Amino acid sequence: GRMTEARAWLERIPPQLLAEDVELRLIAAWIMAFSERHAEARGTALAVLRDPQASARVRIIASRVAGAAVMYADRVGLVDELMHDWPHEAVEADEPLYRLAYDNGLAMLALQAGRNAEVRELGARAPAEHSSPALPLALAFSRVLAALSLLHDGDAIRCEAMLRPLLRDAERDAGRRGMVACVYAPVLASALREQG
Q1: What percent of the chain has pLDDT over 90?
Q2: H helices of the chain, where?
Q3: Distance between CA 60 and CA 184 in Å, rounded?
Q4: Whole-angstrom Cα distance, residue 24 to residue 21?
Q5: DSSP 76
Q6: 69 contact partners, CB below 8 Å, separation of at least 6
Q7: How far apart are CA 170 and CA 78, in angstroms?
Q8: Residue of higher predicted confidence among 83 and 150
Q9: Torsion angle of C-alpha atoms 56, 27, 110, 141, degrees rounded to 10
Q10: Alpha-carbon gap, residue 108 to 38, rounded angstroms
Q11: What is the spatial distance between Cα 169 and Cα 80, in angstroms, rounded to a whole number?
Q12: Other CB atoms closer than 10 Å to residue 101's CB: what's the count?
């Protein structure tokens, strides 16, 4: 959540150092993805993802960075192409975050295609909240996709029932302006608006 500080540090890192260190380059791409430099982040991540010299772990991280970049850029149409490049190791990985990131991409495609029940099925596969410290944002995104599928089905009451306790907990944990709370709030507001 300290993006301003992260951007300031990124500006201080010599470009040559970034070019020599693939993991540092991916960290920089994460910062760019969250900083309105989506195209640059996506380009960096795709270059790493398609590098035959990159390890499986690095390719998995690159696929997540590329996914975040297209989502934050509202370039949902690029998700399908990205899913074809997604490393098979990410789907089979023991780390729950990697599987969830892959399922979130599939759920986004299903939501765009109007396959709302499929979105909720993918969301139901999400791991338990406390199974990994890296999960909160990816879990929030999974839950928001499921909530949006309920809205698309015209079920604003179930959407509200799903999101209200999640938003309450997120605000308690990180405050009203916390990233997870800010993921839930607009979808809950839409559900309330639908109900008048």
Answers
A1: 36
A2: 3-12, 15-20, 22-33, 38-49, 56-72, 79-85, 88-92, 96-112, 116-124, 136-152, 156-174, 179-194
A3: 26
A4: 5
A5: G
A6: 29, 32, 33, 38, 39, 41, 42, 45
A7: 30
A8: 150
A9: 120
A10: 18
A11: 33
A12: 22
What is the distance between the terminal CA atoms of the chain, rounded to a whole angstrom? 34
Q: Mind listing the pLDDT tens digit for each residue in 25-44? A: 998 898 888 888 889 999 99
Query: Which amino acid does the sequence have at 71?
Result: M
One-letter amino acid for residue 137 of the chain: L
Angle at alpha carbon of residue 112, lines to 42 and 108, rounded to 5°: 50
Q: pLDDT for 111-164, tens place per residue?
A: 988 999 999 999 999 887 766 666 888 899 999 999 999 999 999 999 999 999
Place of tokens 């398609």: 50
Residue pointed to by tokens 């997870």 = 180
Angle CA(53)–CA(33)–CA(15) in degrees, nearest 5? 60
Structure tokens that stand for 131 in this block: 């199974």
Q: What whole-number distance in Å separates Cα of residue 80 and Cα of residue 25?
A: 24
| Residue 104: per-residue pLDDT | 87
CA distance 96 to 17: 31
CA distance 121 to 127: 13
Q: Please enumerate in sequence order all residues whose Cβ is within 8 A of that of 143, keeping only pairs 6 or more positions apart, or say none.
A: 123, 126, 162, 163, 166, 184
CA quadruple 87, 23, 45, 149: dihedral sign: positive
Residue linked to tokens 């996506």? 42
